[in-house]
Structures are given as C-alpha cells and as structure tokens.
Amino acid sequence: MNAIETRSLRKVYPAPAVKKKRGVPAPPAPPSGGIVAIDALDLAVAEGEFFGVLGPNGAGKTTLIGILTTRVRITAGEAVVAGANVTTQPADVRRRIGVVPQRPNPDRSLSVIENLVFHATYFGISRADAHRRGQELLERLGIADKMNAKVDQLSGGQQQRLMIARALSHDPRVVFLDEPTVGLDPQARLSLWEILRELHAQGRTIVMSTHYMEEADQLCGRLAIIDQGKLLALDTPAALKLKAPGDTLVEVTFDGDATVVADAVRAMEGVSNAEARGPLLRVFSKRGGALIPALIDAGEAHGRIVRDIHLSRPSLETLFISLTGRKLT
Amino acid sequence: MTAESLAPVAPSRVFLAILRRDLTVARRELPYFLVRTALQPILFVVVFGFLLPKMGMIPRGYSTTMLPGVVALSLTLSAIQSVALPMMQDFGFTKEIEDRLLSPVPIQLVAVEKVFAGVLQGIVAALFVLPVARLIMGPIPGLSFANAPLLLAVTILGGAAFSAMGLYLGTGIAPQQIGLMFSVIVAPMIMFGCTYYPWAGLAHVPVMKWLVLINPLVYVSEGMRAALTPGVPHMPIAAILAALVVLTVLFMWMGLKAFDKRAMS
Ligand SMILES: Nc1ncnc2c1ncn2[C@@H]1O[C@H](COP(=O)(O)OP(=O)(O)OP(=O)(O)O)[C@@H](O)[C@H]1O
Ligand SMILES: [Mg+2]
Question: Is the ipTM of this complex over 0.95?
C-alpha cells in the first residue's frame, strides 16, 4: 500500500497584489496570473519508505509538504496520505501524521514539556500517557534538562528538536520533516539522523525535504529532485548518481570576474562545458583534475589569479547542478 | 501501525483539550487580564458612580442606570479581547496556532473553541466587575437577580456575539492596525452603546435613537438592564434576544470566513 499518492497535483498561489504607482507602468503580470509552486506532480511513496525531497530555494518543497499535511489548499489534482484524501478527509490525514515545520513554531504560552503534553492531548491521548511520552522524547532528543523552561529560553537548534519531539508526541504513522537539520550543529545533526533511522526502522514512513546532498544520500531510500514545482528526477540515490553526467566538475574561483576565462576555456580540449558566475568558473571536465594546470594558465592569460579550486566527482551534487543549473545551498 | 493513530478521536475530546490549553494560559494571565478588561469599567464607576454623585453633580439613582451598562461593557470588552488578541499572536510571524490546526478535527472547530473560551472569559470579567461596582457605588436601588434565565441568556448570547466579533477582528485585520481598530471601532461603540444611559433616554435625540441600533453593544446593555434592573425602561426583551442571535450568527459567519482564509494558504 502507498502511504502517499499524488495525481496531477498543482498549486498556484494568487499573484501578490501589485499597487499601481502614478506614472510607473504596471509590471507585467505572471503569465498564469499567479505563482505556480507545484506543477503536474505525480508521486507515489510506499508505506515504510524513507523518502527525500531535494530542491533549491523556492522549488516548492514546503508547498508540497503543506499540501500533504492538509495545510495548503490544492489548486488541481489530488493527494492521498495514509489512506485519506487531504481535501475531503483532512482530519483523518492529520490523525496519522506528524509534522516538523521549516521554521519552529512552538506554542510560546506554554513550557517545553507542556508543548508536548498539550499537543498529544489534541490527539486524544490521556495526560498521564502524554506526560510520560513527552519526557521520553525530550530525553531522546537531548533537551530533557529544558523540560520546564519557557520556549523562548531555548536556542534555535533546541527549538528545532522540540518541534521534532512534538511531531512524534502522538505516535504518527507518517512523519514529514521540512529541512529538519538546518540550524543544528554537526553533532546534533548526526544524532537526529540516528533518530530518523530508528523511526524508519519502526516501520514509519518518513518524508524529508533537505538541501543537503549528503543527508539525502545517507538517509533516503528514494529521492525526488524538484525545481520550480516540477519533478526532475526520482530514484534511489545510487541510481541517481549513475545518471549524473560522467564529467568531473571543476570549480575555480578567481580574484575577479571569470566570464572572459570561461569563453577561452570552452574551446579547450577535454572541456564539455564551462560557465562563469561572477568570479566562479564552473568547468565540466572529461579529463578529471588533469585539466587544472590549463585552467590556471587560462586565468593568468587574462590577468586573473586563482583563489580556490574545488573538484567534484560525478555525484548527486553534479547531477543536481546539471539538472537545475543551480547549486543546492 | 500504532493503536493511537488508528483509533478515531472524538471531536469533543479534542475540543476540550484545546479549551484546557486556553484556560491554562488564561489562568496564568488572570491579573493582567482583569487589569486590561476591568480597569476601564471600574474607573468609570469610581467617577460617575461615586465621585460625581458625592459632589451632587449626578443624581444618586444614576447608579441603577449605569450598573447594567458597566456589566455589559466588561463582558463584551473582555470577550472581544480574549479572542482578537490571541488570534493576532497565534497567526503572527511564527504561526503558533499551527499545532492546533494540525489536530485531527475540522479546523473550524479550533475557531469555535476560541469563541467559547472568549465567552467564558467575558463571564469571568463580568462576575468580577459586578461586585466591585456594587462595593464602590453602595446599595443600588432596583437591582434584582430574580430573572436569572434572562440574565444567563443575555450573558451567553452577548459574550458569543462579541467573541465572534473578536474572531473576525483578530483574523481579518492586519496586526499593524490593532491600535486603529480599538480607537475607530471599539471606542465609539462604547460611547454609543447605551452603556451609560438607557436607550429610552435617546428619545430626546430621535436620530441617535435609531442610529445606535447598528451598534451591537446596545443590545447587550439593554439586555443587562432588562435582566438586572427591570424597573428601568428598556427595549422589548424579544427584540434584544433576536438581535443578539442575529449578531452572533453574523459575526460567527464573518469570523469563520476570515479564519479560514488565514488558516489555509
Ligand atoms: N503563501 C504563499 N503565497 C504566495 N506565494 C508563495 C507562498 N508560499 C510560497 N510561495 C511561493 O511558492 C514557491 C515555492 O515556495 P516553497 O516555500 O514551497 O519553496 P521551498 O522549496 O520550500 O523553498 P525553501 O528551500 O526556500 O524553503 C516560491 O516561488 C514562493 O515564492
Ligand atoms: Mg521551504
């Protein structure tokens, strides 16, 4: 059975109202009359999967999670989560899911433990059970010492952990996490990975959006790469890596604009593509790092000094850049 | 997979859990709440129910006219604020209300619960102001609690109408305009709400007598008058109750529409 299914999902946000200024011509309206955040998206996530959603800023990750968690209205198409339709049976969906938002939104009028206890009681769990479970979760997430603190006394990362505890407080079947490790220190990130693996091992379905390739690679069974609301690729991390262009990505940072260098380098033997972004020169090399001396020379010939060089083997990262033309972070 | 996530949850149970959250928060803020909502009516009682009568500038019987209005004022002011202010905070930058909007009930129930909590807080404020006012003004001729059913009906309907209005104001108005809201909507409503004079008295200014009928507070003040001081002339009881029912339904409808718009993107 599928934990999540979407069919021809589409979300268009109304275009922001543009105030007309006297004497200033109105800016051209977006073609569709709104912002298309999700476009013709078909997804199927099996029960028990660890599913990743990868995409640059504004790709539509939060919108997608918002739709699947019944918090964003669908413009067209449909979505079924944990056996219930998000539009016609939202309460049934909510009963079975836990949500970690991109931006922590704890209940500031309550203490840390109260945030967990009250949230669980909204799901019909008794206060005694909720309290016991809340304490366990705080311990598991390493913020048990903050149990009676006010939410405002938590650091950003601690609030993030509280959000994760809250999402688990009613023992959901499907857990959605929107960039859960942003703002966590490396140690906390690793311990969160551990927790997510554990949740997954218990049979829960996990849907996580992220900017971090490594995270997606390590945790997710399958990955969807989306940009501008469209699905660009969907497969296991291993299969996606095979699809990555066979070239090595060489990134050279100069002390000035790299456009002239890019133009010169493009014609060089062994270069399949080259582009400049400010001082950054991106070269897809068929000869791996062997091209580097020639790139340095080409820079010097145009009066540019090299500041930094970075090599990436074919990877999710290079696939992502070749698909979207953009870096993730 | 787990027992909890498969068993359906009774909406009434979720409603009570959210109500408990609101009452827990309200109890902690009780002193601030009373200062915010009861101070103005009490100050008014001190000046017009104690000082001016002492100076002989106002006839002693005025306290009978004023008391129901002051009770109505504390009920309605606190009902509006108990819903509008938390709504503004809950829908603010971090959207704190999200954890309740994710509870397994139709989201409208979250709004209805807020209105219910607003009515309770309105009653608390009215129950606080009534004895304090009586204490400051001394014995009030004609005050009677004999018509308890009417008193209860006016209190609940009045509280509901104004809580629902708070829902509309709290979700339909940008937070930057909250100050404006109180000076442009609430302040005139108080002055022209028949709180400090009976509606019958406006017979001297016929235009006003009909104009103030658009003011919801008029029906709560007159309702309190009919219930607490039946000897003072007041609007027909049937008209008062009908108006309060219509206002409650109207504000609830407007409030839920605005709430829906804020709650779902
Ligand atoms: N409430 C909204 N009203 C109008 N437009 C919105 C709204 N929320 C998102 N958008 C737009 O929809 C698009 C997708 O946004 P979304 O937040 O889903 O992206 P994202 O992938 O989560 O980005 P990020 O990595 O920055 O979190 C963007 O163009 C954004 O400007
Ligand atoms: Mg996002």
Answer: no
